[in-house]
User: Fold these one by one.
Assistant:
Number 1:
Amino acid sequence: MARTATAPGAPTTRLGKAAVEFDDRLIVAAPLRRTLNKVFPDHWSFLLGEIALYSFVILLLSGTYLTFFFDASMREVVYEGSYAPLRGVEMSAAYDSTLQMSFDVRGGLFMRQLHHWAALLFVASIVMHLLRIFFTGAFRRPRESNWLIGVVMLVLALLMGVTGYTLPDDLLSGTGLRIISAILLSIPVIGTWAHFAVFNGDFVGEQIIGRFYIAHVLLFPAILLALIAVHLLVLVKQKHTQFPGPGRTEHNVVGNRLFPAFAGKATGLLFVVFGVCAALGGLVQINPVWLWGPYNPAQVSSASQPDWYIMFLDGSTRIFPPWDINLPGDYTIPALFWPTVVVAGAMFTVLALYPMIERKLTGDTASHHLLQRPRDVPVRTSLGAMALTFYVWLLLAGGNDVIADKFNISLNAMTWVGRIGVIILPPIAYAVTYRICLGLQMHDREVLEHGIETGVIRRLPSGEFIEVHQPLGPVDEHGHGQLAYGGAPVPKRMNHVGGARRAIRGFFTPIEEPSQVELEQRAEGRGLATAESERELTSSGRPSDGGRPSDGGRPSDGGRPQEPRD
Amino acid sequence: MSARDTRPGSTGGADTPGPLHGGPDDDYTPEQLAAMRREELDLLGARYDGVEVLHVEPGPEPGSALEKRAVRQVGTAFTLAGVFAFLFVVVYVGSGWFLPDWHWEITERGWSALFTPMLGLFMGLAMTMVGVGLVLYTKKLLPHETAVQDKHDGSHFDRVTAGATLVGGYHNSGLGRRKLITRSLLFMGGGLGLMLLMPLGGLIKNPNKGDPLGTTSWAEGVRLLRDDGTPIRPGDQEPGSLETVFPAVPGGNRQADAATMLIRLRPEQVDALRPREGHADFAYGEYVAYSKICTHAGCPVSLYEQETSRILCPCHQSQFDVTQGAKPVFGPATRALPQLPIGVDDEGFFIARSDYIEAVGPTYWNRERI
């Protein structure tokens, strides 16, 4: 290695030498450089998936901590811990250890609540990430496989949630478990067999908490972890999608390199997500199991709701009509089967197959790396709004007893509102969304054709008042803009095209000299003020005015507004 | 001594790398690289990764007011993060040592009630301030560059050559011709797969053996007990009231399907009483007993509104009319709550006259058959 040190360009610092030693052994310089140079598009909506990833990391950390204290056993014990109201009560070891970790482990309650909040955030960010992917068309070829993996991960996240909140074996989670048992029983033909396989017999048995525990801490997280790895590998391999914009094509990614800009932001986000979960975990009480008491099949509390991500199934179950189907031979398909197994199964199947369905219907089999604005794909956007309305409506129906109680409405009326709403609201959402999409599209076209409304009212020599429009680009002899719509946001305000000078920096007091900024802006040709001196606006630039406006200029000409000419 | 030997990864000495070792090291000699500035090297490497830096907006001028201000902000954020982290440690370690005890008592409103909120507050603030500092750093102090990276479509060359290797291997194996091997492999795979799945059979239990879903601990002569284990006589209950009762067997009050509601009807309810077919004599005077387990999803139906004679299940709002044999009158439930035939034993306590004559709890596929 002595020769290395004397070669030209060889590192002279200790750190540099150590790096060479390291690379001599592992040959990581090239892949490292490739990673550091990877370009990430810069848009806030790309961070939703990251939030999901970070909450999963938090879940792994806090969950591992909780396993040190949790006893996944249904053995009956008598509580002797420090929470006085339950002392001497018979309960399962699972509930007992949950109370122990809440009251007798230093910081245990904090960790338990942190875990629960992170779980809620995990599912929520997955759903938001999914909506972003859906509405921007990021699932299109070649990303169908990652969409599919994502849907599977969502289902796993829900299963993680259900098995997780069942573990404490309190009255609320036990009630949920009873409903899970009933759902299993409702499956035609194999229902009772499936139930006996899962519960090792009739409800409730002595196995179920232990089985849910191993599924919750090993099976599901392991599968999830593997799928996350595949999800990210495919993402890196296929590179990010991006919104259309200047210089962005189907064959490139425009944005920041991983190091240092993107890494800084992403790490910052990790800490913020952790901070938010920690603050919620300490400050906002969640699932106070000691108030519910141990599970007892003969007891239930009113307003029994599951965590938010399962509430849509609770809602569909509440509003489904009492329709058992009796088959010849005295076989029955229970009413419960439809709003739970069938609704959930159908929803996730349609969701998983959506990229294939859309490809079939539109015949669009090309690869896409540029995203679409939701308004430009009104049918998909409206379908999404419809599905979302259906989902949110079911979710609200899951809390219909609470709504009835708080707003003093008849419970039966709430049930009927739920039943009618779930049928008529989604089509209404479809129609309204479709009109909104078309309206937004038309407005984009109008601005491209006629220019931005400046808000400047002029009086013509004839006495007519007109509003001056600012063309965005060159116009033809009728005063119509000639820019085509490119799928990117169209500037709608003068400020978007540099109509105003930039704000002077400083929060409480300016830290720049205003006059200096003014001069700087004049030099750059930005801001309305620069054009003020030579300007004389007399026409709206609309064709109705005889099409006399300017020959225009692109925003890239420094965004300098064009003066309509006389 | 040649320059090649100094390349990272080479072993040096006489054992020289083969001709396939090539790559950028052949394009740029160490001397050439040594003559380049760091910025140039950065952009050169980026170009090899398909990245072009289009535009760099430099960070604030070193020494400018803008920079000083940004540095102050970032420094404050990191310092605050450290302060809050230490506060977390102090609260965590100090409680019960030089601070009051953290163990919470239900009556207490002091330090122990604030212990968990303080942990959350300080950890939350510490973590968030780290994040805020990093974001401020990136936004205010780093140069903002716009880079563009090429996306590569699949390469035809790679496909053809990879395909050739794969097909070549398959061809050499002769599996296409040697049918006995492919068939025996398929047979072996099926067998092995089945074999490895078999242990899951340990999970299977026959739900129809002994009819566990259709029977409960209730039987002829079994007393009705309250949750505390005391028996009930007619007259113990007020008219219009409901009591949850359990079979007088060991662990009866913990069984999932045995919980029963004993209801004493008011006189006007007795007049309106219309039992279901075949249940005419199941009541005892003005007393009726129905299963507490909802026939919809198995929750305990607990909310009894005696004005309307309705029992409401709080899980999915099924409603049952106790004067009509507890048949469902609203909500998703399809079947009446099973009725328990009751009587009174020699000592004057309530007893069951038999088990329920139908399965209690949620409906299932072959419920009507057993």
Note: Chain B has a mean pLDDT of 90.
Number 2:
Amino acid sequence: MSGDLQFDSQGRLHHFLTTEGLDRDTILQILDTAESFVSVGEREIKKVPLLRGKTVVNLFFESSTRTRTTFEIAAKRLSADVINVDTRVSSTTKGETLLDTIRNLEAMHTDLFVVRHSRSGAAYLVAQHVPSHVRIINAGDGSHAHPTQGMLDMFTIRRYKGSFENLKVAIVGDILHSRVARSQIHALTTLGVPEVRVIAPKTLLPTAVERLGVHSYTDMRAGLDDIDVVIMLRLQRERMESARIPSEQEYFNLYGLTTDKLRLAKKDAIVMHPGPMNRGLEIDSSVADGPQSVILPQVTNGIAVRMAVMAIIMGGKAQEEMPAKRPARRHA
Amino acid sequence: MGLVIRGGHIIDPANKVDGKHDIFVDDKGFVAAVGNAPPGLEVTQTLDATGKIVCPGLVDLRARLREPGLEYKATIESEVRAAVAAGITTLCCPPDTDPVIDTPAMAQMIQQRAWRFGLAFIHPLGALTRGLAGERLTDMEALDDAGCVGLSNALKPVTDTLVMRRALEYAASFDLTVFLQSEDPWLHGSGCVHEGEVGTRLGLPGIPEAAETVGVARDLALIEQTGVRAHFCQLSSARAVAMVTEAQGRRLPVTADVTAHHLHLTEHDIGFFNTQCHVLPPLRSVRDREALREALKSGALAAICSDHQPHEPDAKLAPFGDSAPGISGLETLFPLTLKLVDDNVLSLNDAIACVTCKPANILGIDSGHLSVGATADVCVFDPQEWWALSEDKLVSRGHNTPFLGWELRGRVTHTLVGGQMVFELDQKAEN
Amino acid sequence: MAQELRPLLARNPMMIGIHTGGVWVAQRLHDLLKLQEPLGTLDISFYRDDFTRIGMNPEVKASDLPVNIDNRHVILVDDVLHTGRTIRAAMNEIFDYGRPASVTLAVLIDRNGHELPIHADIVGHTMSLNKGQHVKLTSDSATSEGALELKVQEAGE
């Protein structure tokens, strides 16, 4: 695929923009490194000096307290200096473009930008236009990707299920608008999960979703059959206004995860949700707080996984001068 | 005071000329003879076209010059220079300037600006409805008198079907051609890419094929009802092309064109959010591109246009959906058309016809041919020269093109408008 | 080495090996001295001073200190003491776990080339090598039973 600029000329991870195109070894390296960071989080002093003297800017054009907090903690545990910029209320509302904002912050010798933006492709745009020593982590761009969330979900699945080779995983809900679902799908298929299902009414399924390597179901009961991992997605309440679903009640009846529906999955199936949850809309409280739920450990793992991603992309290569890569161009 | 283009291979599809001939131009800028020197013409200037092809100057069905209204993107002057450097001698511009071309004064102003530079001819399209608002009709007959070659609502769909019917009926009363960019605005919604595999992968909102087919279906029904002569601009999907082909089979007076980029690119060229591939209608699937090529072969699609839309660099430096759609296409129109010959889609004769006499016929203008007595708008090109498109070679103010870096074959060396040499490739600067 | 360490047993020391060679040596010493508490292991990847040059070790292992080290006498074990930078990193990491009463450094090989004011308390062998040469401990299996072998390598090998 042309234009994949998250790798440097030697194929090493330079930015972290999407789980698409990562090879299995890279994903496993991230998961293994994250395991080591989990023990750091359990120590008296939870810091390691890896990113001492580095500046990390959390640049959030879309608010998300939780994601921003886990990135902030991750960067601080790596001893980096962290600055949070909430641009939703600052420069961009004054007509400054996304790139202007980046250039201004870059002038403050930033080493890593963690970027969250409401538009698909925003992190790619930024990665294309920063000098080669600056790294970018995509903390969610539109409906495109949220790769660190995808990785922490893989981390959680591996912790509970051991390996990926024999799993059946179902992702339920608003697949169409979900950057989390896309990042999970690419990671799961690369890790060799033999069956990934997406479950939603057709109004919330993207066209040609099967081309991502998944099976689609409109009937949740059929889709949950024999499943090892159930991932519930958040449903934005605006979806009713765009005529994608008729009512909350109908949605909950058909696609809300209840103990009753969960019984159709394997007995030891785990339930995940990237949060924040709408209890009573996509998930019943009895499931969210039930014995099969691993929703809270997901949050804890988020810090170790983000530390791993930061450590891997920030290490080495400092003395190399890499020309800024532009998208590869096809020859006629 | 005459000119001869000597030693070139003339291809003039309108007159079925395909062979090595000299062509003579008289002192008033008209074609005086093809073959032997006409009696009484004193030749004072000779252009050696040995090894080159001499064809009519190109006619581009749709180019936005950005003036008036968006002069920070480009001007009439900058873009007619780019046109003649690309062998294009006649341009048709849509009415979505600012102000809109919905009065005779606006139509005349644009043509006068073009005459002042004496480079390419500009034929405007007049607005179908006032301000393109889709509510009240324009003074169509007056616009016609002022030089508009047809009427169009550009990219703004007339959503009220009754207004659309009346507009088509009224245009039909005066035998005017209506240029349609048919699309259902609700199905288009906030979409910015083809609704398909790539949009799904990138999480970009899609424009379904149905947005185009629903629009074309409605407009075909109204064309049949009103009997208006209509031209569908830049069809992008296999299904819409099939519908227009079927209508032509029933002898409805409809023609259609396609852009050069839709014949060479697909949704996959977007890669990871290449905003240079953000165009409307969107680049669609490989299957759609193949159908467009087939329809060009069969003649269902009559013309290839540039759909030139120059932009300032910042317009493309935004997340994909926020970037401005459009390609600066004047300077790739001809090489991409010639590439269809290398790709075995068209013969060289047919390829040249798609950018000369056929679009001229759609516009109803006397252009795009080298008949004796015709205005000597001539393009001379070297069919064998390979060259790579780079920013420094672009004459247009807009450098927004996904074709930068492409190796292209066929390079315009000379362009004549009304017998005057308006462009000559600086070979020394090249080497 | 075990003999030299024996006098320290009175202080109920805890032993920590540094990945990877140091753990092998520590495992042997741990067995010989019949220490009761489990062996601690350190992976100093997160504390290396050359991180910005060489990047993240792709096979980083978790450090594992099974008992609280506050006020304990620590015996830190590595295979080769060369520049001293590994020991510097290991000491930093140990202090992020707590405040030991003392740290004693035991190495199998002490070679020339020290770059920091760090010296081993207990040394198996002393070697003098050329600048480009490296000494490396290898094991034919990762278990404590596996035979350990010392190899001298030329740079670039």
Note: The longest strand of chain A covers residues 135-141.
Number 3:
Amino acid sequence: MSRRTIDIAMNRVEGDLEVRVDVDDGVVVDAWSAGTLYRGFETLLVGRGALDGLVLTPRICGLCSVSHLFAAARALDGLAGVGVAPHGARLRNVTLMAEHLQNDLRQSLLMFAVDFTSPAYAAQPLYEEAVRRYQPFAGSAVREVLRTTKRMLEIVALLGGQWPHSSFMVPGGVVTVPSSGDLQRCRHLLAAFRVYYEQQILGCSLERWQRVTSAAELDAWLDESPAHQASELGFFLRFARAVGLDRIGGGYGRMLCAGGLAIPEGSRVRGPRGAAFLAPPGVATGTEVAPFDEAEVKEHVACSWYLDDAEPGGRHPFEGRTQPYASGAEGRKYSWSKAPRYAGKPAETGVLAELVVGGDPLFTDLVRQGGAHALVRQMARLVRPATLLEPMDRWLSEMATEPGPYCSPDVRVAAGRSAGVIQASRGMLGHWLEVEDDRLLHYQIITPTAWNGSPRDDFGARGPWEEALVGTPVPDLDNPVALGHVVRSFDPCLVCTVHAFGKSGRRGTLRLGG
Amino acid sequence: MNARIVCLGNRYTAADDLGPRVYDWLAARALPPNVAVVDGGLGGLDLAPLVERSRRVVFVDTVVGLAAPGEVLVLDAAALARHAAGEVGYGHGGGLAYLLRALPIVCASPPPCALVGAAAPASQGLVARVAARALGLAESPEEGAVTA
């Protein structure tokens, strides 16, 4: 027996993340995930104007700004006492989906697949092809995804009137009214993206892909044509299976979706099985789905650097506190991330959770047969755009052709408590706030990575990716590439707080995200 | 096309608020007709569409270890390229280094770029000097000494 502790270098993560594992006889037996930066936005917001979250929270992250704006607006919708105007809901959805499209492909091809070029895989038959595709700045897939995804934020700029730092969502809708030219331009951008997505990512039409509804049909699709095998999805499947990504990263198998992309009133877009959302809310244990109840969300801080004066079991975000407390726990506390729990248990969130909770037949079958694992989690991200492109175009078309308001009239935010819970690109994102005398009395935010990358909770249960790391083989302690696959399959994103032009040693270097 | 001054940083931390404060300084003043100023926040690669539609881009950002306290540092395109050459990692946002390396891929004709920076913390006087230097470079690329 040879038990060793190793720290994993987690570069290519937004913000700062440290992962430590214990390895015994070449297998991970324990894991700890630490967020190393204090965010503090919750404290910053208290005492400010009721609407200030619409301006401040999009700046939490350099990438997820639309998601935070959406969650902040949803929370304020709840205090406004009016519904969201249908075109306002369409416009909100399309901008969030543009963020999804960009994130899903950049994460898949720039962040996840680059590990396929690790020297650890040099003996793999597909290695040279992986290098040709994913080598930074030179790989064919890298260059194409860089060129194509830069256009997605133009949709946000056209519809939101500004990018970066858009704050176009307000209680009851949006403040922008796009022209017919703006909407037509968005449809052109989307059509161009669809061509790229079908040709390069799927290797087939959306319609063909949508007929893949089971694990057996996925295998048949892969065998069907050289175009499918050569596509990014096809290559991902072949490489990931060859290196065993379907045998690592299982975790708890409990998945959470708060509900994303509500169908606006009067829209011809239909949610799965008639649901009111494109990504219906729910909690899956395996593939068994139960209703989602926001009241069951609690945040534990026993192992987080925050004051811990609650009874074991944590506090609901309406009662939550963000009071840094970095000493006195004799090593028990190890992360600036809190530990969100649903009904007292850890749960992962993200694209796989959305698809399983929504009853997607392919991913339900894949999880039923093999559980959640790194391959299926990452594959879900690569194919989510196939579920978004047609509804996006439909909503753009509806805005262009049907008259209707973009914001409800006479909106005033009342005093009270409200939660804005949405599905961001990486999973469930919640803003909980309380307003009194037009001021924010309370603000709490739970991000997707807080769910997935949480430390242990009040009862000692590991966070989802801590648990998913346990059991992972590590044949080479000097290059534990499989551990990176497991963590990256959750699409980690810790918030960046410092962004500077830095110097390392004698030579200046640019520093990313902290 | 305009020249753009793209101010980078996080206005909520004194260690990184130079760019946003320079943005505020410039946005409060009348700028020459062919110069635009952008609050780029923490955007990196996502700023590519702005950069490619510019005649020239001057980034403003906090620098660490490259300038003495109170000094205004200017890096020209060649110096920026040298600093970015070792950058291979993509974070979700893709920072300035990633953007600089990706520009030849994502832009058909990348504009000339420079960076004006200073170490944190920045006094209001230093903010004004950085803003003036950035404005000078945006208007006339030959303005000011270039140090690498």
Note: Residues 495-514 of chain A have pLDDT under 50 and may be disordered.
Number 4:
Amino acid sequence: MSSGKIKETLMRGVFFLTAITSIAAVVLICVFLLINGVPAIGEIGFFDFVGGQKWAPTNVPASYGIFPMIIGSIYVTGGAVIIGVPIGLLTAVFLARFCPPALYKIIKPATELLAGIPSIVYGFFGLMVIVPFVRDSFGGDGSSLLAASIVLGIMILPTIIGTAEAAIRAVPESYYEGSLALGATRERSVFRAVLPAAKSGVLAGVVLGIGRAIGETMAVILVAGNQVNIPTSLTQGVRTLTANIVMEMGYATGLHRSALIATGVVLFVFILIITLSMQAIKSRGEKNG
Amino acid sequence: MKKSSGILAITTAAFILTSAFAGCGGSSTSGSSASSDRQSGAFDTAKTISVITRESGSGTRDAFVELTGVLEKNGENESDNTYSGAVTVNSTEAVITNVKGNDAAVGYISLGSLNDSVKSVNVDGVEATADNVKSGDYKISRPFNIAYKELKGVAEDFVDFILSSDGQAVVTKEGYVSTSENPAFKSKMPNGKITVSGSSSVSPVMEKLVEAYKAINSGAEIELLTTDSSSGMAAAMEGTCDIGMASRELKDEEADALKSTVIAKDGIAVIVNNSNTVSDLTLEQIKSIFTGETTEWSGVIE
């Protein structure tokens, strides 16, 4: 074998190993979650765990119901989508079709900078600015579903803007020009011809944003109030699945600890559903495009 | 032309943003009256109390709910009745930040962490001070216990150190209340290895004590395991550790099997915002606030 060939085989092995690393990490995390979490779900009882309304790990006998946290995660994520998607989408349309180049040089890096800010900084900003704002404007404690939604809505902006802008730019210029030629205005052409064509890319951005929102922990824990109850108004506090894990992991022992890991299993299932729907959207987009 | 379309897009975005906020305002049920009340400088007793609590499992919360009666015991059963609408945070600093920033808030922290940014209220007329904790007049306090079967070698020397004036100085420096008046420490310099295990509330001060002791007797090796009070007592009874730590009184079966010594006391201060006019609460009132029975400050301020 020539030295070139040996090198090639060797490097192929190196590349294979690096490729395996990420897969191994995913597999290890799955195995860890299942081994540690599933027995706890079995011990608590699946329906008592997922459907239980009471989380009182220190009571005797203890209750481990994470239903309020599941609802909390869904509400907070929904709120973030309601606030973040319209702003993000319209920003993407503006950046892709209407923005003067001089302004683009400022707005684009600014949205990218938004993605680089650590989540604990978002949380602190939320605690110092948004929580008092919510308390003074809408009443309640301030630490609430609304505050968490606003903070998360801002946090998912860069994800949505980036993906949606790329999707809008990928639409062939002929769609836009054809629409203009038929007599439509510029706005109409963008919203009726270009945006529908970019639909799957935009949806992918939204789903990525949802994934970011549901997994966010440090920012949410500072502004959400973390009460274990199902909120009936926007000014009440919520506890998300991630917040539940991180708040109590430090002290938990025995079944309490296992229940927290099992909370991670439920979160993992959510992320799995989001990733799968992401794949589905992608493959559908490819088929249509 | 291009510029005007750009402006249109911005306006649309701004419109959606404002309507989103307006929508939130409309659907929020709990009163908008709070914002109008805020303008008057004096403390408004009609305000809804914002209860701040710690996460389940926290030693401070465990002690607080037990001492105030928020924890309801019924035979074997124990139920933590903390108000379900209480904001839950996971550090002492977060409690202080929340109380500092919200004039209707009430929380509780370890006395050692109390500072000027918040106000501590008197409990049953007794001020939360180290002296009142020491004398036992201040009700919301808990002992830091160590328990053991028998002491010999390093373990005996180490306990002597903890109870000496040198050890108690470490306790005071960490913000806790000293309990022993023993003279300065003279080590017998034994060699060996011991294990200390138990409460996560006691272990920060124990860590400092171990450090200080090792500086005197370098021949000793002390392993510190942080679990919880019950595990620590169980380990001491089984003999898997030499000294157990508990941030509460010993239960009967533990007291039967072990000898215990109080090495420090920790008071828990009930804190409110500096602008709050309340200065005195009874234990009953504190219980009623933290279980959610009293929801407005007017319920506890005349």
Note: The two ends of chain A are 46 Å apart (CA to CA).
